[in-house]
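Pinned message: reference record for NAD-reducing hydrogenase subunit HoxH
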Amino acid sequence: MSQTITIDPVTRLEGHGKITLKTNDQGEVSEAFFSVTQVRGFEKFTEGRPFYEMPGLMARICGICPVSHLLASAKACEAIMSVEIPPTAAKLRRALNMAQTIQSHALSFFYLASPDLLLGMDSDPAERNIFGVAKVNPELGRAGIGLRRFGQHIIELLGKKRIHPGWVVPGGVTEPLSAVKRDEILGLIPEAYANIHLALTWYKKIAERFRGEAESFANFRGAFLGMVSDDDGLEFTDGKLRLIDADGNVLLDNLEAAQFDDHFGEAVEPFSYMKFPYYKPLGYPDGAYRVGPLARLNIAKHAGTPLADAELKEFKQLANGPVLGSFYYHQARLIDILYGIEVVERIFTDPTILDTHVRATAGVNRLEGSGVAEAPRGTLMHHYKVDEKGQMLWANLVIATGQNNNAMNRGVLQAAQQYVKTDKLVDGMLNRVEAVIRTFDPCLSCSTHAFGQMPLIIELLAPDGTMLDEVRR
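Predicted structure (tokens):
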């Protein structure tokens, strides 16, 4: 007899989602859906606001990656203003972006994923958390907390607060860096290097235990999208976009933010408020692709910093071409952190970083603008339209987590068909299905932006639970 298995909520995620598994008469999983059940209306309720308020408003969309939204939003505004920001402002923004990537990746890897990796997928759920990690491996727990603190403290020093900083504005940043703050940041770097070295060493020792999960956690052929630098290296803030296929062939290159809509569309499904972006020439769903740490490492030919270059070279030996298994997002995330620490060190030892020219000013010179940045979870796109007075007429956000939406759904089905046996459900089976989602580190808070007809069900229940009426849209 067919069954429906629901995991609600999916735990150790940033946001709220549920997984629905459907089995056939033979007890085999035949369908799987990852549903994001909350909705936010930022694109709609910013209409009518002055465009220069957008970075500050968009930073409120998420407490985990507000810096990414600040940057993408400011860049979209600068496209409307037709200005180029001062070089030192660009460097400071890059440092802020890397600090956020470090703290966000530390949260994902140590707090949300490492309990599965250290304690095991089948371990006691009551122990499978950061406290369990700290109890079994205190050094690893301290390293995770230390790396997150490192990234957050840099954000606080530059942006004056750890969450929702407003320091990035259209045209640059609000104030230059002081020597005192620069020296304080440089003083934190040796400990950050020690912590990421410990984490990478530990991960490589235990990764082999998860060969089965690596084979079945969203491991399939598909395209990858991300930002690269002018010399094909890793880039998070001011590069161009590149799309490659599963064999590493370049499908798109040197793509500017303003060209994004020419090549990518967005589909909707009735079971989720999260959109499904796709590459238009391949259509939906064949044109679905992945973004984020795994995509970045697959797309870049080198990192651009010595230590991350060595790790990336080793990472690329995992496959003859792009690494397709999404389990390796975990390792890619640690390499991102290492790269970020090196970039932060490079920026704050640059003698021009104390320059006081950090903001350009202008009014409305175009009625439309787009901005792109690499958020911790992948490519983030903001696209705005304004009137002659600079009031917002329309906004569209293409969030990194949404761009992984199709891959997450495919991954849930793949893992469920591998591990879920409906004659006897045990926690470890269902935890593996959830763990597929954790490899992508989705941030559901900012990814739920309905496009087109919003699915909605309203049920009217009597006190005894009997359904009296139902409305569906």
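Pinned by admin. Summary line: The chain has a mean pLDDT of 91.
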